[in-house]
Amino acid sequence: MNKTLMAKMVPILVAVLACGVVLGWFFGSNGEGLKERVPGEDRVGGEAAAAGGPAAWDGKLVKGSGTPASLQGVWPRFRGPKGDNICIDPTPLAKSWPAGGPKALWKTDVGEGFAGATIWKGRVFLLDYDREGKADALRCLSLADGQEIWRYTYSSKVKRNHGMSRTIPTVSDKYVISLGPKCQVVCVDTETGELRWQLNLVREFNTEVPPWYAGQCPLVDGDRLILGTGGDALVVAVDYATGKVLWKSPNPGRWQMTHSSIATAEFKDRKAYVYCGSGGVAAVAAEDGSILWQTRDWKISIANIATPLPVGDGRIFLSGGYDAGSMMLQAKDVGGKLVAEQLFRLKAAVFGATQQTPIFYQNHIFGVRPDGQLVCLDLSGKVVWASGAKNKFGSGPFLMAQGMIYVMDDNGTLTLAEASTAGYTQLARAKVLEGPDAWGPMALADGRLIARDVNKMVCLDVAAH
After folding, report:
1. Domain count along the chain
2. Cα dist. 237→177, 187, 196, 289 in Å?
């Protein structure tokens, strides 16, 4: 055989031998050693999420130089003290601002994201993301100057995905509880930051980490933590002090977690938790987690974010983005069983909520619809007024206090307007953040408004002086 022919044959012989080795190994071992693709490995979180991650994980507590402010006001959870996004703090608030806007008492860097803050007696709490350390960072700051009092971190590998943080912790005198982007729940001591317990929802309940990571804010109701887990249970109740599971709701449809948080409501004198899962919306009994009613009439396949809004008489107002529009449901007794019936549905052009949950106030619904206008609806779904094409706010947050509404736009401009059913009346407007994406829900206590954009958090003095 000449050298030229040999040179051509060598690569072919090598390939044949390689195939023979692979086939011999496979059939000789019956395929043993091959790793089958596990369902869920291609979703957010990859292998760690599919496997459930660790039952417990290492955390690190670092003390800072900050000290709490001598203040007693609270904004203890997502949407404030009563979960309605209305401030009840008695500190008098300014009804107008100087030309430069309200004074910034302090400003601090935060990790890329949209996570809002809570306030508890001179402290500010934030579930941040430490990109360099690849860790969730539950931070306690001084309301006085923004200096860090303590920081509790734990490993959580998160990729940039339209921000890296988006949930708000809940806080009391004893504990701070947070839900991280990978569905890791942590409870620490409010004063010291020391770990009390932790819970991995993926491992414990087969929760699927939602696209763009978890957006649900934990709800503490009395001595219980209420979470919409999806997977093995639709909703679970956990002992607030120990992390012990108290009850689990059935989940026959295997609905999964969405970005929506849980609302508290009453139906026929029974306290309930209302949750938008991936397959619809349901109300579960507060005492034992049994399903009171559920419906698939409200289902958003992309980014179900807004929280259900109870408006009295067994009615729940639901709203969403991505052309979902909005819907009013009413729970009725039909043959001794609660059934949720649709009262009306509105197209997105009339009203929807891309990111921020509307506010129920003076028997009306206030919110920012997808075209950016602030809108007031009556309870029949009729638009009472809209702020107009010159007053648009994008996907920014809003809250109410003392008959006024604070509304942030995407780029960090804050507007103060009357919270009135009579019409839109602007009181003040100022640029308070650089932007972009000033989407994090705001918090207000002691005349101090906490707001953020994608990289900065600011504390504004909005008190009357």
Report:
1. 1
2. 14, 15, 17, 8
298, 254 contact by CB (below 8 A): no
Give the H/E segment covering residue 360. Answer: strand 359-361
Residue 256 domain-assigned (yes or no): yes
Give me the sheet containing 219-221, strands edge to edge: 219-221, 224-230, 233-239, 245-248
Going from the C-alpha of 148 to that of each of 132, 177, 219, 220, the distances in angstroms are: 18, 18, 25, 25
Residue 78 vs residues 81, 93, 171: alpha-carbon distances, Å = 8, 21, 10
Encoded tokens for 47 = 């292998």
Task: Answer yes or no: is pLDDT of 158 > 50.
Answer: yes
Cis ω on the peptide bond leading into residue 436 (within 30° of 0)? yes
Q: Which residues pair with 295 in a beta bridge?
A: 281
pLDDT at residue 160 is higher than 90:
no
Give residue 393's identity as a one-letter amino acid code: F
Query: How would residue 149 be classed by pLDDT, with cut points 50, 70 and 90?
Result: very high
b/e string for 60-78 if b means 16 or more Cβ within 10 A?
A: eeeeeebebbebebbbbbb
CATH of residue 79's domain is 2.130.10.10
Contacts of residue 360, Cβ cutoff 8 Å, sequence gap at least 6: 84, 309, 310, 311, 317
Sign of CA dihedral 57, 455, 163, 127: positive
Q: By residue range, what is the domain housing residue 256?
A: 43-461
Sign of the dihedral defined by the CA atoms of residues 184, 276, 77, 352, in that order: positive
User: Residue 393: its pLDDT value, please?
Assistant: 97
d(CA 312, CA 84): 13
Is 274 a domain residue?
yes
Neighbours of 300 (CB within 10 A): 24
